[in-house]
Every structure is written in C-alpha cells, then in structure tokens.
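Hello,

I think I submitted the magnesium ion job twice by accident. Can you confirm which output corresponds to this input? Input:
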Amino acid sequence: MNTNNNIGQIIIHVDMDAFYASVEIRDNPALRGKPLIIGSLPHERGVVATCSYEARKFGVRSAMNIKEAFRRCPQGIYMHPNFDKYKAVSEQLNNIWNTYATVSQRISLDEAYLDVTEQAGDWEGARRIGRLIKQRTLDEVGLTCSVGVAYSKTAAKMASEEDKPDGYFEIPTSGDFVDLIIDRDVSVLYTVGEQTAKKLHEAGIMTVRDIQQHQELVVRLLGKHGRWLTQVAFGIDDRKVVPYRPQDAKSISREVTFQKDVRDYELLKDVLLLLAFCVEHRAGRYSLRGKGVTLKLTYSNMQSISRSRLLSFSTASAVTLYREAVQLLDTVDHQPVRLVGAGLYNLAQGEQGQMVLQDLFEDPGTLESQRKELLDALGHRYGLDFAGHLEQIYQMDTLHKTVEYMRKHFKGL
Ligand code: TTP
Ligand code: MG
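Support: Only one job matched these inputs. Its output is below.
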C-alpha cells in the first residue's frame, strides 16, 4: 500500500474554484476576466454567494452584504444564482469523483472527500488520480478545480486550499502537515472561525505552535472543540470518509430575507406557513420527522434571535410546524424584521411502527383538512393559488418571489 505515510489512508479533497461564478463564465465567455458577483443584486437586500477571482481582488467575499460588495466593486457584474444549473453540474462532477473513490463524501455542491486508498494503491497512484480528476473536470465539464491529496481529511482539505485556484497540492504525512502550518495563524485550521480565532487570540494563542504548547488552556477555552484542535495541531485526524446521506442531517430549515423590513407580524405568520410547507417537503423526501421546532428572526438592526421548543412527539407536518412557530413568534419582541426562518431539529427517520402512536397527537384526517383550510385562507388573502403551486414554491427563487409579492400586497387581516 502507500509507502509514503504510515497512517494507512489516502484521501483526496476536491473543491471547485469560484463555483457558481465559474459556471456562469463557462456559459457566457463575455464574462471571462471580469469581476463577477453571484448573489443578490446591488439594489436588493442580501449577500454575495460567491464571486470570481477578479472580484476577490477588490475585497469581495462570500457572505458579504451585497451593499458592501458594491461599495468595494461598483464596476462588478452582478447576477442572481441559477441553482438548478449548479445542481446539474454537481451531478456531473459527482460522477467523475465516484469513479476514483471507494467511498466519497459530498460536502456541498462543489466539494467532496474521496477515499482513494484502494484505487490508488500507493502515493504515485493517488497523484495520478488527482491529476485525472482535474483533467476530466476541465475536459468534460469545462471548469477548474483544486485538488488536495493527503493522509487525512483535515490535511486534504488544507491541501486543496493551498494552491487555489486550479491547484494541486500534496501533504503525504502528518510531519509534512505540521511543518506547513506550525507558524501560521490558528485560523488556518478550518474549524476555527472568526469567533473562535478571536477567543484564542485574546488568550495569546496566535499560531498552531501556540496550540501545541498550551493544550490545557485551549481545552479550557473551547472544551470539546479545543480537544480536537490540540489533536489536529499535531496532524492527528483519523476520521474516515463516510458517504453523505441527506437523512443524516441534524436539522432542516428554510428562511427568507425581505427586500424591506416587515413590521406586521400577521404577514410574518403567513410567510411562516410557506416556510413550514418547504420544510415539510424536504423532511418528506427523506422520511424525516423532528421533535424540535425552531423559529429564527433577524431584526432590522441585524440582531438575530432563535427560539425553539421540543414537542412531546416528532412531526413532519407543515401544519404542526406552522402552529408551533406562530406560538414562538408570539413570545418574541415585535420589532421590524428582515429575515424569518423556521425549521425542525432533533430529527429521526420515521418508522411505520411509530405511526400509530403518532396518530394520537396528529390525526392524519384532521391534519389534512387543516392544511387545506390554512392554504385556502392564505390564497384568499393574497389572491394566489398556493395549493396549486406548492411544487414551485419549494424552489428557492419562487419562494422569494412569492414572499415579496405577499409583502407588497399585504393589507392586514
Ligand atoms: P466555496 O467552495 O466556499 O467557494 P467557491 O467555490 O465559490 O470559491 P473557492 O474557489 O474559494 O472554492 O463554495 C461553493 C459554492 O457555494 C459557491 O460557489 C457559492 C456557494 N456559497 C454560498 O452560496 N454562500 C457562501 O457563503 C459560500 C461560502 C458559498
Ligand atoms: Mg469551491
């Protein structure tokens, strides 16, 4: 097997470059070489999903407020994302990736871990696979990606970042990994986000070497996460590549940002009903039920709050989720709202045997008639056929458009 390391796994992490933006550029070469920003449009509310590397030179980043992006890059080209297209591309990518992996773990549309230990045989074989994936992605899909080959998942992810875009980088052993990062800032470790980095910095822990030398302090500051970091700082990460299964998700939620703040909480309740249907749809696809219900709000001052409650039974019903979310909404401060979300957590896969017990709490007949009543009433208020268009409303774009229509046409109850 692989001779260059003694851990026994060879893992590839592959991550597409500026994914959404690159797909748009591929399909419209006039965009090539330009600062392209995918997300909201400058006059709308919202954030940057991603941007081309040319736009990154202006300081534009994923998740940045779109107004800030426009301030930094007024000459940029701004476009809405086209999710259906990206999903289709992702399927193509997945087919290429799967050819070379015994197990592949998709992390998002554009990113996966591949366990290539068997197929590769040795390090040279892994190198060949890494190169092949890059070549086929370019030839067959017309896009560039960055590939990291390493002895562990953490190192493979780090390797794919190391030489981006169109990168290829190897980290064969834990020794190589430690040599590479020991004097870098703690934020080089991908589980260290802004908040965690701040906490560590404030305690004087600036680099990976500091983590190595102050393990007790790191654990005291960060608990379980700290313990993980003290391992990773020495290159220890034995996690296996596990196939991604949507049913393993810990929660399912949907949210929308309004183009103008909403002051009327009756309108919010109507929006919660649509969100509840979207969550029900997703839960249904994977036969999931949740015991916990959450409501999320972001107020106009950007303060976000979430409220949740655990039910005595688990549900996948939009009616139940809606009713619970509305009750939670009644308990919060009624300030103007820019974002509202609803979700289920504490998920478990529904089993037939539980259905009988379930019926004690949620009679299927009653739920069905309530569902119809709620949708009819909603349709009546806005003059829209919600029941007939649910399939479309489950899609993000239509959901946003519908919610904006509701906001503009809301006249009170
Ligand atoms: P990333 O792989 O994080 O970013 P990227 O592929 O655009 O760029 P990079 O070359 O740095 O890998 O995310 C993949 C896609 O996921 C990205 O194209 C858009 C989407 N996305 C969001 O919608 N919002 C976000 O905050 C992030 C980080 C990504
Ligand atoms: Mg990417």
